[in-house]
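#struct-help
A.M.: can someone run this one for me? Single chain, 334 residues.
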Amino acid sequence: MSLPSFVEFLQRKENYPHPVDKVTLVQTHISFVFLAGDFVYKFKKLVDFGFLNFSTLEKRKYFCEQELQLNRRLCPDLYEGLVTLNVDEDSLCLNGEGEVVEYGICMARMPEEKMMGRVVRAGNLTRTHLDGIIEQLVPFYTQAAGDGEIPEFGLAQSVAVNVLENFEQTEAFVGQGALSRNQFELISTWAKEFLSHEDRFQARIDAGKIRDCHGDMHSANICLADPIYIFDCIEFNERFRYTDVAADVAFLAMDLDFHGEEELSNYFIEQFIERSGDIGLLEMLNFYKCYRTYVRAKIALFTASDPAVDEKTKAACIEQAKQHFLLAEKYAAA
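D.P.: on it. Structure tokens below:
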């Protein structure tokens, strides 16, 4: 598939208004990310997945503005602003004056050696790091919006939409190496039974714990610099961001469990509860941990089944999915 013309333009260092030694392009399934000197430029791909729609220039501009606004809640100094690609005298220009042909955002570049995923993999994560994360999260959740329609997303039937969808989308993979029939039945039966206790979900609503959260809080979206950056929240669909605080913190706790850091995972939850006073989180924790790890497994399986990926990537994704399903089984059994 051919890339948009602006991708080649932004890979040339002379096209930036500041010093750039080299430009590195990183792609995700929804973004083009350009690492250029002391800054990062991020542009949304022209895609429509139903739950995410960047199919028009107007939509991409809107969601760029949303990304800036929402992420500045936790990273006020990281997100520089909206950028444009313009056509000036028949050539592209970054932040030019002619017709706007694309919108993106500019961020300050974070130190790669302090990205949390790298720190965890090196075995260098400490309780002090987690204390710093908690110091940001507790006031963030207190101040996050929790009015209007937001509490309704905490209802059992609302949560069930996302949870049951996972089982529907993974049933075809049962018995193919990563997910056994016994695992599938155990996890899905337990999750459905938990969802039947509507009073548990209502109690979280009554306690004011359904908030406009981060939505994607795991180690790949945290930089342990000074200050700590918790970035790249969900901007493209409110359904994934309006959630129980327990679901948000469960994502990071699950991620630590997955990387073999159970002691630090427990410490993170214990200290978060102590500092927030949210003891009710414990009743929901395993349920949301199970949900989060099952989603990661599902995404890995989807990637492995993509005919465009090579055999090495396919094998790695299947193994990753297998490990996430084992973790989901552990949470369900507990």
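A.M.: thanks! Residues 281-304 form the longest helix (24 residues).
D.P.: also worth noting: Strands lie at 23-27, 31-36, 39-44, 79-88, 91-94, 99-108, 210-212, 222-223, 229-230, 242-244.
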